[in-house]
Amino acid sequence: MQRTLFLSREARPAGGSPRRPAPGRTRFLAVLGAVVAGAALLTAALFLLPGGAGSPGTAGPTGSAAGGSAASDRDVDQVIAQMVSVFENGTPEVQYAYVEDLDDGRGYTAGRAGFCTACGDLLTVVKSYTARVPDNPIAGYVPALTELAAAYDDSTGKLDGFADAWRTAAADPVFRQVQDQVTDALYVAPARKLADADGIRSALGLAILVDTAVEHGTQDGPDGLPSLVRQTDADMGGSPAGGIDETEWLRDFLDIRRTTLENPSSSATSEVWSESVGRVDALDALLDDGNLDLATPFTVNPWGEPQTITG
User: Fold this and answer.
1) Do 252 and 232 contact (CB within 8 A), yes or no?
2) The predicted structure's pLDDT at residue 254
3) Are 174 and 54 in contact (CB under 8 A)?
4) How is the chain split into domains, by residue range?
5) pLDDT tens digits along 242-259
6) 210: closest CA among 56, 80, 41?
7) Beta carbons of 191 and 257 less than 8 angstroms apart
8) Percentage of the chain modeled with pLDDT above 90
9) In this structure, which CATH number among 1.10.3470.10, 3.40.50.1240, 3.30.70.20, 1.20.141.10 belongs to the domain 29-304?
10) What number of CA atoms fall less than 13 Å from residue 111's CA on the CB side?
């Protein structure tokens, strides 16, 4: 139901019927190591944020290419969260309680961003939550999760009862808030920083970069978001910050992203990434519609089942 980090997995919506294979962000071992190593720092930072800073809608400014969006920043971030949820889970409802062992080399995949037990980001979520709510259903799994993340180990033998504990924790608004914060810190904030640096001002432009961060990762490898931005700047002879038309830049960026999905640097991802181009097509369709402000409601249709985004 979530996305790939190294391999494919069959995605299933809430009703259980299969839909498209859902590749997601690809992160290499060095990046996973960085996530694990930075978990303590991120946990401390999130713990110090009062009242949910970093949850959808609390990040920095977003304006349209025409000079300002009709929607508030909070509205835009919620719209983007719903879009990514459709691309990842087939529903605009953000899936905080989702947890499943997909036998895909990542152990348990869980939560709104497909946090994984073998990948470090799930450990960050659990440690951040435990820092704020020490007595919680998943706190006891921190030692096992730390060991698994450090070894990139997809085994679940030491996680008996973890899935039920995760679902129980997801009923807590604080736990959902922590998932929002970690998603923002690891994926949304880096995408926003690149958007600001390159002069991407539209809400749709930010959504395109955020979705790319979630699927491709924010590592500085050949298939990561920073590389795709640099390739687009080179191909277009500049960026919107230097006067290049933003819509044309975004269209070229999506073309480069599609090429990367069809021909990734790692052969391990080639089959599953080629099956994920529907999300690029859906974003291209929004460009064709001229909906740079992501004015709601609108539909996205990456997998043949249109979903309505309401914000």
Assistant:
1) yes
2) 99
3) no
4) 29-304
5) 999 999 999 999 999 999
6) 80
7) no
8) 65
9) 1.20.141.10
10) 26
Q: Which amino acid is at 48?
A: L
Number of alpha carbons in the 13 Å side-chain half-sphere of residue 5:
28
Contacts of 172 (CB under 8 A, 6+ apart): 133, 136
Which pLDDT band, with edges at 50, 70 and 90, does 35 fall under?
very low
**Containing H/E element for 211?**
helix 203-216
The one-letter code for the residue type at 112 is: R
Task: Specify the pTM.
Answer: 0.77
Q: Residue holding tokens 């009862």?
A: 161
Tell me which of 137 and 35 has the higher pLDDT: 137
Catalytic residues, which ones?
88, 104
Instruction: Please give the share of the chain, as a percent, with pLDDT higher than 70.
Output: 76
Alpha helices in 240-307 (DSSP H): 246-262, 270-274, 277-289
At residue 44 the predicted structure's pLDDT band, cuts being 50, 70 and 90, is low
Which is nearest to 306 in space by CA: 83, 117, 116, 101?
83
